[in-house]
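Lipoteichoic acid synthase 2
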Amino acid sequence: MRFIFELLKTYLLFVALFLLGRVTLYLIYFDRFNEIAFEQTLLTFIYGLRMDTIAISIILVIPTIILALTPKKLYKISAKLVSYFILIFLVLAIFIECATFPFFAEYDLRPNYLFIEYLDYPKEVGSLLFKDYKLDIIFATILIFICIKIYLKSNFINFSKAFESKYSIRLLLLLPLLIFLFIGIRSSFAHRAANISDALYSTNRVLNEVTKNSLHSLGYAYYSYKKSESNISKYGKIDLKNAYELASNALGIKFEDELKPFYREVKTIKKESKVKNLVIIIEESLGAQFTGFIGGTNLTPNFDNLANNHISFTNLYSNGTRSIRGLAALSSGTLPIAGNGILKRNKSQNDFFTVASLLKPFGYKSSFIYGGEARFDNMRSWYLGNGFDTVIEEKDYKNPIFRSTWGVSDEDLMIKANDTFKEHFKNDEKFVSVVFSSSNHMPFELPDGKIEFEKDLPRNCVENAIKYADFAIGKFFELAKQEEYYKNTIFVVVADHNVRVYGDEIVPIDMFQIPAAIIAEGVKSQVFTRLSSQPDILATALDLLGLDLSYPILGNSIFKDNKQEINLMLFDETYAYRKGDKVAIMVPNLPIRTYIYKNKKLIEIDKDKQLEDEALALIYVLDDMYNKKLYK
């Protein structure tokens, strides 16, 4: 029975490692569970063991087969092979457990697909890790080295002893053990195998995250994202024709052409002899709570001044928590699609609607202006493939004032943008441009002499990054107001998403709130307080250009009667569809639930079938339009 005993010890070793990580997370975030009964919080260890068992059972399949099928004369080779196989996974598990703590501190989540995505950008991520997580890396490296030494020298697990069991006995045990591991992987006798949603036992989102297993979470995220372009049934099922009708009702947009859904003609509210240019300035991670006109701070005087004297949005929510969600929403007017973002998907790399492709027939020159490397998040390829004439990125800046991990400073960005627009005016060209900032990003590297740093806070903190981003906004408008193009241009200043999405709610909706202002000479200032989405911002800005336009944007101008008070938000894999103060929450492989949003809390109420059907319909419609390339 030594065969089984060595496998059992391996299982217990991994259980101990995962338990140590979970206990540490539990203690760190214990104050976040104050609304949950103590005994209920302890269930995290029971449900967590289930998640651990799934991961460990997968790891043990290959060693079990090798140890069972190898004849005794080859035991040394097999024992060493299995030993190193387990060591590789042990090192991987230790590394991921160590990485979980800074990742959780930053995103309020266990490692997910974002963790994998960032591996595609070693330069930026390597620089960030070296500057902000040096001690974490040193600690993890030392810990891994010590564990390797102990594992190799200790006799606690000795796979050679597995061969003390007779070959015939090992063969007889193989099938029962594989069945046992299969049960462990499935972790359910129900029709459907257990998955990541089975960790969501509590109403407290952070406690559910503690319950998960980071190794399993990463593996599931990778599998889910690879499968996501063809599988949205995990959210529920709905007839596609019915979905389009429900989505049409929810959006307030007629569905008349199956080949061009939601494509309609929109008359401008401001017909003029000379049409306007359009500049959309997208601010990285600028949450509404940091602004004066919404959050009551003194960090953004320049943004506040623009908002107070033009059109401001005080009840606006982002599509998601990633830049690619905000960029897609504000450049193409779409809502968040399940799985990978539009910028990275294969079928949206060309012939996908954008503001540039919309205005190109009217003679507009278009540009995407960024301070970093535009290969990040596939921005360069997506913008150039979908109608934008030019992408300006880090390599195009000569002698920048300041350069950080993520590229040149926001001040450099704004100077370059102003110079670009001056050149368009000089050449008598109409223009549309998306300008994307990057200074408000970890590790918050900021130049000297530009802002007064906040007292009693570290220099490299989010508050100072917000102040610097606002300084750059002020710099741009100071320069632009001196130029002739200014009076004939509509400007949008809006965030892509909030800085960090923290909160114990299953979807922390308040952390999706972002600020926006539309600056248009000759347009009466107003404060728009109705619930709005990022596609609404794009539709409103286009309404002021002086052009009658036809487009499929999934939002409406605030100047139109069909403006709806809805928002679709994506948090990791969980959707929140908000209509007024009612919210439908959609978690993969779980029933849709209805909540009321009150005082920044989600309170579950009786099912609202219409709301839940509309939520599911929007997800199906977004997926169908993408797969059939109908959003154009």
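thats it. The mean pLDDT is 93. DSSP finds 20 helices and 18 strands in the chain. bye
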